[in-house]
């Protein structure tokens, strides 16, 4: 995704901002500001190691060698992440990043992962040695019981999408290894490149909402705005093929997006369903493919919204005879400490880091769930009009 | 106990024998004979290290420094355990030890611990890495949940008696440390001297059935036999005071033992209840002390038979206002892997190693539970007559 931005919109200035959708979690009371600054400063001191660079240049991703072009790799190797702006406001932190898009976008994952892990550590700090051991024993058992249920279903395919909101790095690494042992070929890889490299796994990924959000914010008029979600995929189409051609249709409402989509998009490999009712999302995708003369059995639906093993099993059972199905399992894979600490102090929560403006203009996300929407009210109203979004069903956002 | 035997009956020749009371566990199919021999040979190669010897000589046990006399320590330092006799018979092992009593008696604990641990390892051998991790995670959680329940009760006092039937050495060590962190002063120590030494804990212990069993076997006539259980405690009385003066009354039936006991025994600190209905056992003890003019509130009842946290909490609740109460928690502290492996292959079982003869005469144990009785039928009948043992209630022996 970064390479795509680097080639197509390198000069766009963006602002990314931390958004704690779980305002009941008082991040600034839990995490010491000095410690947070230390971590963020440390992230700015990092650059690719020689081994990491060699791996990115030489490894096969999605069956393709040299996915990353030399000009991109050279830029990446010399990259230092831009400055951050941190301020405590009440019990929350305001944390923003400004600069050119390809640079700033790389802050999202480490910033979130650091905040999540510092919060975990703050809670762990008060625990004694055996309490700690048993905490991890319980978390391990909990994950393994999920794995034991999932591995009963042959054909299930699941990837790790849990980097940004993981409990901690070591815990994510453990979860990934448990998935490898438990699911074998049913575990299709991880979006954490370091773990993929260290554990010799497939590094996998897809495109995210920030692409259409920034393209849309840059649109000069309503007509360009209406075209923006397709323009971004046209650029993507130039760069990627096969299993990387996955539509993320919900940024401004899935139904309108599919209805107005150009025919070449129906030729893409699949659709990722990341908000709203997943059953309805998959039904819409199947109906759309049929309407465009495509065979759904040749198509891939990737579910990735707030998954846990029950939902995975239910969705697989419902759809695997009608379409190819895959799962991007995130927070409840790498951070399911629900119920394991007093006051549920380690439960995961909905922390995101989003592009909030591009070249000075606010971004907007509507999503298929109003609780995930973001942007100024007047812009939301405008986008709803432009994208023909009607009444939406509100769904609770847990993670 | 060994020092007592060393001073009082050093020349008695005894035979100790392995008895698997859980004959459904096919030990010889589970444990490789070569591996077992290797371990038993290794035990024979062991002697006290200098540090262990220094600790035994210099440490305080039950508030007493130099509990072990120099002649005993010198003998102990030069001890090599006598040979063992091992034969596979069907799916079980016959394992016996012969020689002088103070030497042979030291085989019991390592022989049992090795058999238990080899059985654990045999089951673990078939498990993969994450299965193993989760197995131990579950076992740790299980123990910790017991600790969490027990620590809710202030005043509860529990010691580790779980060496001989532990899952493994490292696991026992972990359990002991969990008890230390979880129960604090409520954890009164361990009967495993090595762990006590390494972890700076109280080494605790008491006397066992083998003392009256061997004394009784040596009795030339019924009159001497009837006196044997008291003779052995008279010898013990000479050597030990305070909290080491604990009566184990059930070898030939608790009720008869107490009824015919000499008055000086009522002056002892406490009674250990190791078979039969523990409530009845404690009630008998309390009634006996009262009948002998003693104040039960000054006396100690130690429960040690097949305890788990439910039984501990129940017995504590019933008796702690009427007598001092303590618990010797064994197998279900250090080996509660029930329900954690396929086919319950790691569940603890009732393996013992007992004195079966002394100077060529068979030993007998009646116990307060006929399922724990042992000895030739005619000798059992004779002992029942001599000790006035009537009808006994059968209770299932789990561990």
Task: Describe the 3D structure.
Two copies of one chain form a homodimer. Chain A has 399 residues and is an alpha/beta fold. Chain A has a single domain (2-46, 81-386), classed as Alpha-Beta Barrel (nicotinate phosphoribosyltransferase), CATH 3.20.140. Chain A is built from 18 helices and 13 strands. In chain A, strands 7-6-11-10-9-8 form a six-stranded parallel beta sheet. In chain A, helix 3 packs antiparallel against helix 7, helix 8 runs parallel beside helix 9 and helix 11 crosses helix 12 (222-239). Chain A binds chain B through residues 128-131, 133-134, 136-138, 140-141, 144, 177-178, 181-182, and chain B through 128-131, 133-134, 136-138, 140-141, 144, 177-178, 181-182.
Q: Could you name the key traits of this structure?
A:
nicotinate phosphoribosyltransferase; 46% helix; 399 residues; N/Namide_PRibTrfase (chains A, B); pyridine nucleotide biosynthesis (chains A, B); alpha/beta; glycosyltransferase activity (chains A, B); five-stranded antiparallel beta sheet; homodimer; globular; Nic_PRibTrfase-Fam (chains A, B); six-stranded parallel beta sheet
Overall number of structural domains of chain A: 1
The CATH topology of chain A is given as: nicotinate phosphoribosyltransferase
Our measurement of the CA-to-CA distance between the termini of chain A, rounded to an integer number of angstroms, reads 23 Å
CATH second-level architecture of chain A: Alpha-Beta Barrel
Read across the widest sheet of chain A, the strand sequence of neighbours is 7-6-11-10-9-8
**Which structural category fits the helices and strands of chain A?**
alpha/beta
Q: What is the largest interface, and how many residues per chain? A: A-B, 16 and 16 residues
Largest sheet of chain A: 6 strands, parallel
Radius of gyration of chain A: 21 Å
């Amino acid at each position: 995704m970064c390479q795509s931005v680097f080639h197509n919109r390198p000069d766009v200035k963006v602002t990314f901002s931390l958004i704690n959708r779980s305002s009941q979690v008082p991040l600034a009371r839990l995490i010491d500001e000095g410690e947070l600054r230390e971590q963020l400063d440390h992230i700015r001191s990092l650059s690719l190691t020689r081994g990491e660079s060699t791996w990115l240049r030489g490894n096969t991703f999605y069956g393709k060698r040299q996915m990353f072009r030399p000009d991109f790799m050279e830029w990446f190797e010399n990259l230092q992440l831009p400055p951050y702006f941190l301020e405590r406001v009440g019990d929350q932190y305001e944390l923003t990043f400004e600069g050119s898009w390809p640079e700033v976008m790389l802050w999202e994952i480490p910033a979130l992962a650091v905040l999540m892990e510092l919060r975990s550590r703050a809670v762990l700090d008060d625990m004694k040695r055996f309490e700690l051991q048993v905490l991890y024993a319980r978390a391990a058992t909990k994950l393994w019981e999920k794995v034991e249920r999932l591995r009963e279903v042959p054909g299930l395919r699941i990837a790790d999408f849990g980097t940004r909101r993981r409990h901690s790095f070591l815990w994510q690494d453990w979860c990934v290894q448990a998935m490898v042992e438990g699911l074998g070929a049913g575990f299709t890889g991880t979006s954490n490149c370091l773990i993929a490299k260290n554990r010799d796994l497939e590094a996998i990924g897809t495109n995210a909402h920030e692409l259409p959000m920034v393209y849309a914010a840059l649109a000069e008029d309503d007509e360009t705005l209406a075209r923006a979600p397709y323009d971004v995929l046209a650029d993507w189409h130039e760069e990627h093929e096969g299993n990387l051609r996955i539509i993320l249709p919900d940024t401004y409402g899935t139904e309108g997006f599919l209805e107005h989509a150009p025919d070449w998009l129906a030729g893409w490999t699949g659709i990722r369903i990341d908000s709203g009712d997943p059953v309805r999302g998959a039904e819409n995708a199947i109906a759309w493919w049929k309407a465009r003369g495509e065979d759904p059995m040749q198509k891939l639906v990737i579910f990735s919204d707030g998954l846990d093993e029950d939902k995975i099993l239910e969705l697989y059972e419902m759809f695997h005879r009608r379409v190819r199905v895959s799962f991007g399992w995130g927070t409840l894979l790498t951070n399911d400490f629900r119920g394991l600490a007093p006051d549920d102090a380690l439960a995961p929560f909905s922390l995101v880091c989003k592009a909030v403006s591009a070249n000075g203009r606010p971004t907007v996300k509507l999503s298929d769930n109003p609780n995930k929407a973001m942007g100024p009210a007047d812009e939301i109203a405008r986008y709803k009009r432009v994208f023909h979004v009607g009444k939406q069903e509100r769904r609770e956002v847990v993670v």
